[in-house]
Amino acid sequence: MRSVGSTLADFEQDLISNLYYQRGTTLESASGSDGYQTLALTVRDRLVERYARTAAAHYEANPRFVYYLSAEYLLGRQLGQNLLYTDTERFVRPIAADLGVTLEDLESYDVEPGLGNGGLGRLAACLMDSMATLDIPAVGYGIRYEFGIFKQAFRDGAQVERPDDWTFYGNPWEFPAPDDRQVVGFYGTTAAALDDPTGLRRQWTPGEVVRGEPSHMLVPGYGTQTVNIIRLWQARASRQSFDLSRFGAGQYKEAVEDIVRAENISKVLYPDDSTEQGRELRLKQQYFLVACSLRDIIRRYRLRNTGWDAFPAKVVIQLNDTHPVMAVTELMRLLVDEYKLDWDLAWSITRRTFNYTCHTLLPEALETWPVAVVERLLPRHMEIIYAINHFFLQEVEATYPGDLDRLRRLSIIQEEPDKRVRMAHLAVVGSTAVNGVAELHTRLLAATTLRDFAELWPQKFHNVTNGVTPRRFVRLANPRLSELITERLGDESWLTDLDRLEGLAGVADDPAFLERWRAVKRANKVDLAAHVERSTGVVIDPDALCDVMIKRFHEYKRQHLKLLHVIMLFNRLREHPDLDVVPRTVLFGGKAAPGYHSMKLLLRLVNAVAETVNTDPVVSRRLKVVLPPDYNVTRAQWIIPAADLSEQISLAGKEASGTGNMKLALNGALTIGTLDGANIEIRDRVGADNFFLFGLDAQEAADLRRDYHPRAYYESDPDLRAAIDTIAAGTFAKGDRSLFAPVVDSMLGRDEYLALADYRAYLECQERVEHAWRDQEAWARMSVLNSARSGFFSSDRTVREYCDRIWRVEPVRVA
Ligand code: CBF
After folding, report:
1. Domain annotation for the chain: domains and CATH numbers
2. pLDDT of residue 2
3. For the residues 42-51, what does the mean pLDDT come to?
4. Quick one: which of 438, 307, 302, 420 has its CA closest to 360?
5. Burial 335-360 (b: 16+ CB within 10 A, else e)
6. Ligand 1 binding pocket mutation candidate from 358, 659, 663, 682 (most atoms within 8 A of CB)
7. Contact, 214 vs 225, CB < 8 A?
8. 8 Å CB contact between 500 and 489
9. Which letter does DSSP use for residue 266 in this model?
10. Ligand 1 contacts CB of residue 359 (under 6 A)
11. Of the listed 659, 671, 726, 798, which one is catalytic?
12. What is the largest CA-CA distance in the chain?
């Protein structure tokens, strides 16, 4: 086989031949999309070769593999990353220039696969990147949703969701692998297995069968030869599903019914679960993912191993939150029913194979499934859950004899108000290690949400603080800053050893360096201003403080607290047009779940405030508010390098970790934040003087919540009252008092996340921000120190911790 060459001439030659043989066109008639696809294929060829060598090295070494099971991956655009990782960008720029296009033109065709919602999916992508970079043998498993996270648009300020047909023009980065398809069953009946006197082995006859077809995306490591893969499953009907006779009889809809039902499984990311069918479809998706993946894991294991004893030594499966937790029961079913292992041995293998990462503290985010739904969809799995629970509760009873209350609390089955399977409990019972994603989160998990488990098995609980990949979120997102850092540190090794950023601290007092640091930020703000103008029509001032709140819209994250601050500024500037305030651009970015009506209304309010502020001739000179639509990984890469201030203002004790906070700090934004999630660790590292802290801590918040009266804050704080009254008066709704009344009612009536209690402290803290901003050199110094001391938040460090403490895997070098 001809191997790809490494020179410019080889690259050019490959481009021409891919254009010709793969796209079937010529230079003269190629479209922009042909240009992009050709480039992508040419870069991909370079990765394929490395992937082939990786596969061979892994086969040879037969190492312990990490299998990462995740319902979500937010990978971001692939072209820029793969050019960097193959060191071919230097070829492309001159070739593109000769052809009269820019790399940026070509990149605009690169569609990001939106196979996730937010932090959890992006974390999965960062960990996969770091595993490859650290030469860890790993495979990610996920679902190839036909439609990823919806595209957000605004109509009259309200969010409208448009389907994300991300593969419409074809995705050059993935390889279909139909030979590795799997068959998955649902519904049906179970019966006793004749050969099993214990009654623990049974036979399941599914009532419906679908195929899972994989394709894989390549995940290259940076600065190494390893290329791992993420395998994504798409549901297909079995071949017999097309009803030819019905079609012949003109019953076209009925003829394809089975096909449609099967393919719906991987149709969309997170089917709406407000209906019974939606809930069932979501569970079906989850089981589909784990059933396909486990069969594939076993297939891979058996390529080099025989018997089952070595299974936990060769296979470690990380459950990314509760979505893939049905894998615990599926592995038991495979081992006991299909491979005829005895229950105890199967359970010991299962428990030693799985680990579980919990990403939340919100009780409503810990999944539970109605027993009735599980029984119908996965009858055999429900039996297995009952059996696991039975043996587990015996263990509990032996440890705490007679403690019925504890049994009830620990049980995998919730009895009241309705019978449900608690997936987090199943995950903890079926795993060796359980981890939270930031120190506070892990501590609170063990003290509250999973307290009984932490008492029962303290050794199971670990903390692994999240991290982010510096390759995407510094090098690719912020080339100007990367160049300056490299120049200062002497080489690019900081990209794989992020603690080296500490070397910047030595120049944090050097005025010439600070000047250059500020110039980088300003240039990034000019770029951002162009993006913002293009997407919103609003012109923003690159010299204004760029105040950024980018994340999913969720009540606990408290975008409404930020908005109350904006409205206070608006009121002040209207009353005192000459007031000396720091010019600011407040940039929001984020989507609200389609069924999350209160947050959709809040988005609408943000847009309405933006419209009022930006068109006010007096206010808009000092304050701008923008909400560019469709926040995603690509847009994050535009916004983060330009941010001066990072808003991390969730109610303490609610944000598990946050990772946007890390990306922003690494790029030199200063954080204004509460003592929540990883903010605490960021503050510990960057130093209290370089972090704007405000608000209740987790304990104070929990105490206050017991007897909380938001109205009292409203009544005693004139600024707060004025801000809320401005909304209530219909100022942002052309006088309509009813449109945003639910926002006001929610703040005054319930204020679930104590925004009003934190309001005054937040305002005072914003005044400290203003004061600090007025000394631009001091601000730049703080900014440098934020980057310099955030090396800890590299996902390479996160992966190393998983490897050392949980996975116990070793790297395999690829020649
Ligand atoms: O751990 C990664 C992220 O996961 C979430 O986004 C999640 O979906 N549970 C959390 O909300 C974040 O705090 C966390 O950083």
Report:
1. 62-77+112-465+801-807 (3.40.50.2000), 477-793 (3.40.50.2000)
2. 63
3. 97
4. 438
5. bbbeeebebeebbebbbebbbbbbbb
6. 659
7. no
8. yes
9. G
10. yes
11. 659
12. 88
Q: Express each pLDDT in 303-349 by its tens digit.
A: 999 999 999 999 999 999 999 999 999 999 999 999 999 999 999 99
Distance between CA atoms of 104 and 479, rounded to whole angstroms? 13
**pLDDT value at position 240?**
77
- Ligand 1 centre to CA of 368 (Å) is 18
Q: Is the CB of 659 under 6 A from ligand 1?
A: yes
Digit-coded pLDDT (tens) for 208-227: 999 999 999 999 999 999 99
Classify residue 532 by its DSSP letter: H
Parallel, antiparallel, or unpaired: how do β-strands 227-237 and 138-143 relate? parallel
Average pLDDT of the chain? Answer: 97
Tell me which residue has tokens 């809040």: 602
Query: Which member of 202, 551, 622, 781 is catalytic?
Result: 551
**Residue 42, CA distances (Å) to 24, 184, 471 in order:** 14, 36, 21
Cα(119) to centroid of ligand 1, in Å?
A: 5
**CA-CA distance, 572 to 578, in Å (whole number)?**
10
Tokens of 520: 């980088």
Query: Looking at this predicted complex, what is its ipTM?
Result: 0.99
Q: What is the pLDDT of residues 657-698, one digit of tens each?
A: 999 999 999 999 999 999 999 999 999 999 999 999 999 999
Neighbours of 711 (CB within 10 A): 12
Backbone torsions φ then ψ of 642, nearest 5 degrees: -95, -5
431 lines ligand 1 (CB under 6 A): no
Indicate if the pLDDT at residue 178 is higher than 90. Answer: yes
* Residue type (1 letter), 421: V
503-556 pLDDT tens trace:
999 999 999 999 999 999 999 999 999 999 999 999 999 999 999 999 999 999
Q: Is 360 in the pocket of ligand 1 (CB under 6 A)?
A: yes
User: Band of the pLDDT at 195, cuts 50, 70, 90?
Assistant: confident
DSSP 536-604: H-----TTSEEEEEES---GGGTHHHHHHHHHHHHHHHHH-TT-----EEEEEE----TT-HHHHHHHH
Q: Is the CB of 653 under 6 A from ligand 1?
A: no
Catalytic residue among 216, 359, 380, 604: 359
Is any atom of ligand 1 closer than 6 Å to the C-beta of 677? yes
**Atom 12 in ligand 1: residue holding the nearest Cα:** 658
751 lines ligand 1 (CB under 6 A): no
Q: State how far the Cα of 113 lies from the Cα of 77, in Å rounded to an integer.
A: 7
Distance 52 CA to ligand 1 centre (A): 34
User: Residues of the chain with pLDDT > 70: what percent?
Assistant: 100
Which of 253-257, 710-714, 778-782, 786-790 shows the lowest mean pLDDT across its residues? 253-257
Q: Measure the CA–CA gap between 443 and 362, rounded to whole angstroms.
A: 14
